[in-house]
Amino acid sequence: MYIIGVTGGTGAGKSSALKVLHELGALALDCDAIYHELLSDCTEMITEIKERFDDVLSDGKIDRHKLAKIVWNDPSSLQELNKITHQYVSKELERRINTFAGQGGSVTAIDAIALIESGQSDNCDIVVGIIAPREVRIERIIKRDNLSREMAEMRINAQNPENFYKENCDYILENIYDTQAEFEEKCKYFFKKNIF
Q1: Which CATH number does the domain 2-194 belong to among 3.40.50.300, 3.40.50.1240, 3.20.20.190, 2.60.40.1470?
Q2: pTM value?
């Protein structure tokens, strides 16, 4: 199994890169989507989060917005949340990759903001960092996630700076394009040249 790690801050274009890898035949795993699934389904993870973070429930379920307000404002809380969630996300990644390998699959792409910090990058054959200008990222996530500018900036400020990805990734793809289609073309060219 050849594993491609895709990382970068929110709004940079990781989902576009993952979409291209899926179209090229890779198993595409979005760690953020897996985390959201586990927030609904994984009793053990939910219990650990509830025990650590007070007042994050609404109607008996974890309220992602309440939790986000806590962790985006406090780096130590974000670290504690990540410590809880990364272990469960990693187990689920392993399960899905093994299933795919058992079906004859040979390339997996993992999209994760915290790919490096979680240690998941150690399982990757290559790590590709996706970066984009800060203001472009802010505008994208305001539109995509229906956030206020303040919440969008808070989210970006809680994440690693661009240099972190430049220093820790094998390759960097800069998303400076006006359209998603243009960036996807760049990704397709890069992945065909370097992997497929």
Answers
A1: 3.40.50.300
A2: 0.90
